[in-house]
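Consider this today:
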Amino acid sequence: LVVGSVQSERQVAISIKHGVVIPANSSALGRVILAFAPESVQEEVLARPLKAFNDQTITDPARLRRRLSAVRQHYYEVAINENDYGIATLAAPVFDADNRLAAAVAVVGSPFNITRTPDKAMLAALHECAAAISVELDSTAWTDWRLRQ
């Protein structure tokens, strides 16, 4: 569920409407949220048919499980053309005081500026943003993750 966004100041920008629900299998934000959800929630989602929005959408539960595992390891996810062609997203988790997932933050753009292997500066900025929000919520999850790296 999209609850907020900051609009680009560029003349041409991609926007997302507040209140939109994006399925976990077709979005970076959704996969970040699902990756850190309780296992019972993950299994419930993976037991249902996964909707395809186009030929890029992940609909295979085994493939989705592998992606969720990678998200938990790297603390980010990328989705390119999975929900709509021409849209790419880079997302990271935000944690609360109990180090449980509280939200996710993302950068939305085109596949020309968000690629499967994210730009290091963009990924670092996203990680810093997610970590700073998490710290404001009294979380140590990002510090703990960085110590494991």
The CA atoms of residues 4 and 57 lie 24 Å apart. The helical segments are 28-35, 39-47, 61-74, 120-136, 141-148. The two ends are 30 Å apart (CA to CA). Strands lie at 77-80, 88-95, 101-109.
